[in-house]
Amino acid sequence: MTIKTVRKLFLFLFFACSVTACAQQQTVETAGTSNQQIADYVRKAFNVPSNVAIAVKDAEKSSIEGMREVKLEFTSEKGTQSEAAWVTKDNRLIIGRLMDMSVDPYKKNWDKVNLKDVPATGAADAKVVIVEYSDFQCPFCSQAHQTVEQLLKDYNGKVKLVFKHLPLDMHNWAEDAAVAGACVQQQNNDAFWQLSHYLFTNQKTIKKETLQSSVVEATKNLGLNADQLKQCMDTRQTLPLVKANQAEASSLGFGSTPSFLVNGRPVVGAIDLASFKKIVDEALAGS
Fold first, then answer.
1. pLDDT value of residue 96
2. Is the confidence at residue 62, as pLDDT, over 80?
């Protein structure tokens, strides 16, 4: 069982029952429960394998009055995943997320997104803004690229597209391509979109060893300073920007590509055009 699997179990538990019901079902059997006892209970309750370490840490202040709040940390060779949990006075355990219904979830997502100095195309004053978190080497992202291009045509003047870099570790030239794309965008926004189209449509022929020469060739007639571009790629000058995009995606819960925000609404995966249009139509109606 991976950390991701454990998280899925918790999310299932959270959505399958109310906070009260969960508290009733997940009763910690020992009085005066220590952090180690909580960890031992969680391991048994969710059948967490021995290769996943469980640590329980007390929060400085509980977000629910009258309850003790702790943070559960699950660590394996894949990394660490955290979950919030609360212990009631009668020794019941609640695991999940505390939802503040006074805050619009879409607005909360939107507040995490930086929209300054980013690659953007479409109507500047569009009612719908789509933020795409993508990987130039990802085959599903190539499919999504065709979909969003069609959306821009079909909703001309109504939709704006913003691009964010989310290169995945499994793709050996994705991060280099993200760095190169950011280097191009620093010089010319339109050139970035032409390069992105080139990268998505030529995935099968691009290799890590030839990526830089491919970028130079693809952008040679776009009015860029070639020496400046090469230096930017050689020194990986834009890597911090790429890392910032990845951190932003992580803060939104995005770990796969392609992922989107449509006026703050999360959309994950290369969904078909009709389904995407329905989401855009709902966003337009809501705006």
1. 80
2. yes
